[in-house]
């Protein structure tokens, strides 16, 4: 599947195609890296006191990478689940998305929940995030979703701004209070 993206480079517009492909077992290393990166960007301010390299080393040494990947793979049993890498036609990774569906029969609702959404560093600030969100929204509508939900860190200003530009509204606020020193 292709999504045509218009990119602004000064006054010149050019079209570049983005290819979305379903993730597979060979993608596990890149998925773990991208998930860790987005976790860091969305984590609490005290967690981000660590330099990224230390944060990454700690996260990779826990059971969380395996749990994350197993959850992703299990979710793909639902044919509506989207777990895709967005790539340029020459194979450069632009981003990654993972969307699960939750049916709420008592309310007659289907919710498409964005579990992961990341644009790789070299591709940020070019409108790629809006393109990926549009791709997600189109698929969610095709799959019968009534709502599209996404979470991000409150300090992740770029992500918050991107969501607002795409029409998302705040529906829940979570609070955290640090009670002990974390070493």
Automatic annotation (TrEMBL):
Signal peptide: none
Presence of keyword Transferase: yes
Gene3D superfamilies reported in the protein's UniProt record: 3.40.630.30
Stretches of the chain forming a coiled coil according to its record: none
SUPFAM superfamilies, sorted: Acyl-CoA N-acyltransferases (Nat)
Keywords: Acyltransferase, Transferase
GO molecular function: acyltransferase activity, transferring groups other than amino-acyl groups
Organism field: Paenibacillus hemerocallicola
Protein name: GNAT family N-acetyltransferase
